Amino acid sequence: MTSTEKESVKRIEVEWGDRFARLASHVSPVMIEALVRHVVHGTPTGSFLQSVLENNLVESFGRADEQNLAAMRYWAITIGLDMPAGSWGSRENVAQWCESGGLLGMGRRSEESKVGMGRRSEESKV
Asked: Residues near 52 by Cβ (< 8 Å), separated by ≥ 6?
């Protein structure tokens, strides 16, 4: 990865961290960092955050520590309003998001498909 690409990734991570400001005042920075890594890179999370992302209410409450338990309202608001579609909602969605590499993985696949489409259109002209 070039330094320009690294800077771009860092900028994306900071932007997503800023989106979670409402939640950040209620949970530890480690939780925000895990959420950002999940969104940007598709990194799997710990069991509590995974249960939140999978929309599993009972498991989320059962796995929450005191701080996250007190912040459950803010978790729900953040997940519902600020998370990208497809990154949460069910076990299948979360697994697929992680397998895809998050937003960066989607961006790479999008670029690859554009290149592939360009090749196909060039081949069809022949």
From this structure: 60, 75, 79, 88
Sequence-distant (≥ 6) Cβ neighbours of residue 41 within 8 angstroms: 101, 102, 104, 105
**Burial call 80-92: b when 16+ CB within 10 Å, e when fewer:** eeebeeebbbeee
pTM of the model: 0.83
Helices (H) then strands (E): counts for the chain: 9, 0
- pLDDT tens, 71-105? 999 999 999 999 999 999 999 999 999 999 999 99
3-state secondary structure of 39: helix
